[in-house]
């Protein structure tokens, strides 16, 4: 994917993503219009490129967020349970919380308390109802181990590159569920993978495209 979808404000950004056919679903378009990226990214929020948010991590480019939502949209439906690993600034977590509706729930997990605190403040700026209605919860923990307290999940999104593949996340996926995650070493080849579990608990992994993400690691290594 190329970074063409820069906007002058949030609505313009989403319009550009739709015009370039990154966003195909009206549900995704509506949800992304309801979450102003500027509340979650303080530098160049409407540029279609990754931006640093502190603590050694970035917020992904808008086109990658939109692409992830398109791949997961059938699992991020009304009433679904979703896990967002490496939730960072809370942006994508909030968009998904809108998509699951009032009967669903999205869990955002990050291992850095300061990021979790920041993401909560970000959500309160324009999407406080998601927290008030318990559609969105933000927790501190090791995302490589998932968050079994709220599982199993219809969809799991991972926002950092896993190496090795996090088998514990597959255990927390419902039959019929889907995981989207980058896999590979920090300084090597990384692939965006789609992982599907069928109704008999058979698991299928599919490589989608080469990507570049910060590593899914522990707090000490991330801050070193």
TrEMBL record:
<dbReference type="GO" id="GO:0032259">
    <property type="term" value="P:methylation"/>
</dbReference>
<dbReference type="InterPro" id="IPR000682">
    <property type="entry name" value="PCMT"/>
</dbReference>
<keyword id="KW-0949">S-adenosyl-L-methionine</keyword>
<comment type="similarity">
    <text>Belongs to the methyltransferase superfamily. L-isoaspartyl/D-aspartyl protein methyltransferase family.</text>
</comment>
<dbReference type="GO" id="GO:0004719">
    <property type="term" value="F:protein-L-isoaspartate (D-aspartate) O-methyltransferase activity"/>
</dbReference>
<keyword id="KW-0808">Transferase</keyword>
<dbReference type="GO" id="GO:0005737">
    <property type="term" value="C:cytoplasm"/>
</dbReference>
<dbReference type="InterPro" id="IPR029063">
    <property type="entry name" value="SAM-dependent_MTases_sf"/>
</dbReference>
<dbReference type="Pfam" id="PF01135">
    <property type="entry name" value="PCMT"/>
</dbReference>
<keyword id="KW-0963">Cytoplasm</keyword>
<keyword id="KW-0489">Methyltransferase</keyword>
<protein>
    <recommendedName>
        <fullName>Protein-L-isoaspartate O-methyltransferase</fullName>
        <ecNumber>2.1.1.77</ecNumber>
    </recommendedName>
</protein>
């Amino acid at each position: 994917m190329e970074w063409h979808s820069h906007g002058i404000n949030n609505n313009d950004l989403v319009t550009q993503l739709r015009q370039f056919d990154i966003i195909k679903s009206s549900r995704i378009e509506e949800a992304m219009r309801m979450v102003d990226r500027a509340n979650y990214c303080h530098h160049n929020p409407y540029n279609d490129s990754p931006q640093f948010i502190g603590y050694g991590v970035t917020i992904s480019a808008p086109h990658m967020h939109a692409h992830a939502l398109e791949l997961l949209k059938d699992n991020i439906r009304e009433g679904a349970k979703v896990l967002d690993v490496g939730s960072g600034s809370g942006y994508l977590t909030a968009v998904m919380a809108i998509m699951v509706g009032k009967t669903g729930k999205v869990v955002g997990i990050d291992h850095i308390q300061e990021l979790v605190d920041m993401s909560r403040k970000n959500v309160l700026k324009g999407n406080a109802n998601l927290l008030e209605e318990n559609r969105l919860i933000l927790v501190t923990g090791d995302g490589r181990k998932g968050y079994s307290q709220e599982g199993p999940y219809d969809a799991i999104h991972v926002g950092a590159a896993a190496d090795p593949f996090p088998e514990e996340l597959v255990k927390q996926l419902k039959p019929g569920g889907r995981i989207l995650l980058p896999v590979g070493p920090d300084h090597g080849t990384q692939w965006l993978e789609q992982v599907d579990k069928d109704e008999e608990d058979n698991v299928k992994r599919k490589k989608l495209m080469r990507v570049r993400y910060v590593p899914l690691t522990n707090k000490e290594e991330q801050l070193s």
